[in-house]
C-alpha cells in the first residue's frame, strides 16, 4: 500500500473515475492476472494449497480508480500457474479493525487450513491511521472467516510510526515468523520481526533490517532462504534517484546475506533492484514444496503511471510467475516458469536476419513469446536491438519503445519514449532475450539474469522491428503465438 502523501498525489492525477464494469477490452491482457473489473495492485499471499495455486491481490471492485479506504482482497486460482479463474472476493473491510481497508499480506498452510495474514487499516484522522495485523482462515479455499480475537498484533513498535503494514509469514521448525514494513521515529524505512507458536499470539523480536538512506518506508517485505543464502525484498518509498538506478517513483529491491535464527541477526550486502523496467513494484514470493521452487509475482504498475484502461472500467495487472535463483555473483535472477510453455499455440517465426538499420519482421506484438539472440562477436554495429511504436502517457505522446545492446558502453538499455533504463552488460558472448508480450505489457529476460518489465499502449497492433545503428548485426528470432486464457 501507499503512504497518505503518495496516495493524495496519485489520486490527484487520476480524478476521472470510471464505472466498475469493463466497457472496452482494448488493453485487456490475454494471459496475465488482472481484475475482472475495477482496480488491482499488490499481489498478496501466493501459495500452493490443496493441489492448486492461489493468488490474492489488492482490489477495489467498485471502480477502476483505487480507494485505499475500501480495499479488498481479490482472488484467483490455477491448477498450473498458467490457466487462472476468478473466485469470490476473499476479504472485505467489514470489521472495526479493518473498516477502511484490508491491506496487503501473505498466506500460509496451517495444518491444512489456508490462513491469510493481512493489515487492517483504519483512518483515525487526516494524518494518523491505525494499521494492525490480522488473520482469516478457510477450509475450502474460497470462503474466509476472520479470527474473532483480531487484531493479532494491535499496534506498531514503540520506536516506530503508524506506517506498519504488509505482513509476510513463514514457518521455521515449529515457530512462525513474521516480517512487517515499518518506519522508525525519523521516518526512515525498516523491517521489523515477530515470532509466534500459533499464528495468534505474537512476540516482538526487533528490527531485522533498516537504512537511513534507502527511502522513507519499506513496503511489502519478503524474507526467505534461497540457494544457501537469505534474501530480503523490500519496496522502498521516496528512494532518491541515482543516475539510472531507482528511476521509478517506487522500486522493488533486495539484500542478500546470512541470517541466524538463534540471534535473529541478518548480515547482508548492498541493495539491488529486482527488475529494471518502468512498471514493476510491490512483489510477493512463495515457496512451492511440490516442485521445490521459490517463485515471485509483481505488480505491473507504478503509482504515477498512465492507466488508459481506467476509462474502460479496470486497471492494474500482475507479472507472469517467475522462478527465483541466485547467480554466481550472488545476484537475484528471475526466469519465466516452465509451465508457461502451455500457452504456446504455434511457432510463427524462426529466422536468422542480417539487420542493417531497420528490418520489420511483421511479428505481431500481442500475446507473443519471443526469443532474440545477437552474437556479440559478430556484431558490427554500435547498437542492436528491437523497437515498436507506443504511448507512454498523454503528455509524452507517441514514440518508440526500444531495447538494445550498446556495444561501446557495454550496456543493456530499455527506453520507453524518453524514459530510459539501463544496466551494465560486460563479458557476455551473446545477447539472449526471452520476451513475453501481451496486449499492453512486455517482460524482457536478458540472458536469464536482468529483467525489464513495462506497460505500453497502442490502439493498433504493433509489430516487431529490429534495428542497428552504424553497422550490421546478425540476429536470430523465434516467435510463438500464445493463448488467451480468459476466453471460455
Automatic annotation (TrEMBL):
It catalyses: Hydrolysis of terminal non-reducing beta-D-fructofuranoside residues in beta-D-fructofuranosides. GO terms for biological process: carbohydrate metabolic process. Keywords: Glycosidase, Hydrolase, Signal. The keyword Hydrolase applies. Pfam families: Glyco_hydro_32C (PF08244), Glyco_hydro_32N (PF00251). Residues 340-479 form the Glycosyl hydrolase family 32 C-terminal domain. It comes from the Eukaryota. InterPro entries: ConA-like_dom_sf, GH32_Enzymes, Glyco_hydro_32, Glyco_hydro_32_AS, Glyco_hydro_32_C, Glyco_hydro_32_N, Glyco_hydro_beta-prop_sf, Suc6P_hydrolase. One of its GO terms (molecular function) is beta-fructofuranosidase activity. It is an enzyme of class 3 (hydrolase). Its EC number is 3.2.1.26. GO terms for cellular component: cytoplasm. Residues 1-20 form the signal peptide. Residues 32-336 form the Glycosyl hydrolase family 32 N-terminal domain. Belongs to the glycosyl hydrolase 32 family. This is Sucrose-6-phosphate hydrolase.
Amino acid at each position: 500500500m501507499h503512504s497518505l502523501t503518495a496516495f493524495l498525489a496519485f489520486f490527484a492525477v487520476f480524478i476521472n473515475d470510471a464505472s466498475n464494469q469493463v466497457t472496452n477490452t482494448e488493453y485487456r491482457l490475454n494471459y496475465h492476472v488482472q481484475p475482472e473489473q475495477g482496480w488491482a495492485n499488490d499481489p498478496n499471499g501466493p501459495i500452493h494449497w490443496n493441489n492448486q495455486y492461489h493468488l490474492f491481490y489488492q482490489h477495489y471492485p467498485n471502480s477502476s480508480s483505487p480507494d485505499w479506504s475500501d480495499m479488498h482482497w481479490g482472488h484467483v486460482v490455477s491448477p498450473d500457474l498458467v490457466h487462472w479463474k476468478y473466485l469470490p472476493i476473499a476479504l472485505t473491510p467489514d470489521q472495526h479493525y479493518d473498516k477502511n481497508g484490508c491491506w496487503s499480506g501473505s498466506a500460509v498452510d496451517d495444518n491444512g487450513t489456508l490462513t491469510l495474514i493481512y493489515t487492517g487499516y483504519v483512518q483515525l484522522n487526516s494524518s494518523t491511521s491505525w494499521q494492525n495485523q490480522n488473520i482469516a482462515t478457510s477450509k475450502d479455499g474460497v470462503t474466509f472467516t476472520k479470527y474473532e480475537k483480531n487484531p493479532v498484533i494491535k499496534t506498531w513498535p514503540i520506536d516506530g510510526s503508524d506506517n506498519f503494514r504488509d505482513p509476510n509469514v513463514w514457518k521455521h521448525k515449529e515457530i512462525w515468523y513474521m516480517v512487517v514494513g515499518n518506519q522508525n521515529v525519523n521516518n526512515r524505512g525498516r523491517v521489523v520481526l515477530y515470532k509466534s507458536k500459533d499464528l495468534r499470539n505474537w512476540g516482538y523480536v526487533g528490527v531485522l533490517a533498516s537504512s537511513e538512506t534507502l527511502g522513507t518506508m519499506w513496503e511489502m517485505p519478503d524474507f526467505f532462504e534461497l540457494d544457501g543464502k537469505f534474501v530480503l525484498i523490500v519496496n522502498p518509498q521516496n528512494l532518491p534517484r541515482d543516475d539510472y538506478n531507482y528511476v521509478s517513483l517506487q522500486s522493488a529491491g533486495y539484500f542478500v546475506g546470512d541470517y541466524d535464527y538463534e540471534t535473529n541477526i541478518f548480515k547482508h550486502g548492498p541493495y539491488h533492484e529486482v527488475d529494471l523496467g518502468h512498471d514493476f513494484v510491490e512483489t510477493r514470493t512463495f515457496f512451492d514444496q511440490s516442485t521445490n521452487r521459490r517463485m515471485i509475482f509483481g505488480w505491473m504498475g507504478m503509482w504515477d503511471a498512465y492507466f488508459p484502461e481506467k476509462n474502460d472500467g479496470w486497471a492494474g495487472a500482475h507479472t507472469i510467475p517467475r522462478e527465483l535463483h541466485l547467480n554466481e555473483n550472488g545476484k537475484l535472477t528471475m526466469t519465466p516458469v516452465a509451465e508457461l510453455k502451455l500457452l504456446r499455440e504455434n511457432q510463427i517465426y524462426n529466422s536468422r536476419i542480417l539487420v542493417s538499420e531497420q528490418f520489420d519482421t511483421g511479428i505481431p506484438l500481442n500475446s507473443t513469446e519471443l526469443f532474440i539472440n545477437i552474437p556479440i562477436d559478430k556484431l558490427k554495429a554500435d547498437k542492436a536491438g528491437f523497437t515498436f511504436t507506443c504511448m507512454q502517457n498523454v503528455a509524452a505522446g507517441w514514440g518508440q519503445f526500444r531495447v538494445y545492446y550498446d556495444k561501446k558502453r557495454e550496456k543493456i538499455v530499455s527506453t520507453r519514449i524518453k524514459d530510459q533504463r539501463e544496466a551494465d552488460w560486460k563479458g557476455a558472448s551473446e545477447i539472449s532475450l526471452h520476451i513475453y508480450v501481451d496486449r499492453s505489457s512486455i517482460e524482457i529476460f536478458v540472458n536469464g539474469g536482468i529483467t525489464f518489465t513495462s506497460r505500453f499502449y497502442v490502439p493498433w497492433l504493433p509489430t516487431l522491428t529490429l534495428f542497428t545503428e552504424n553497422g550490421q548485426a546478425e540476429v536470430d528470432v523465434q516467435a510463438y503465438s500464445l493463448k488467451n486464457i480468459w476466453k471460455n
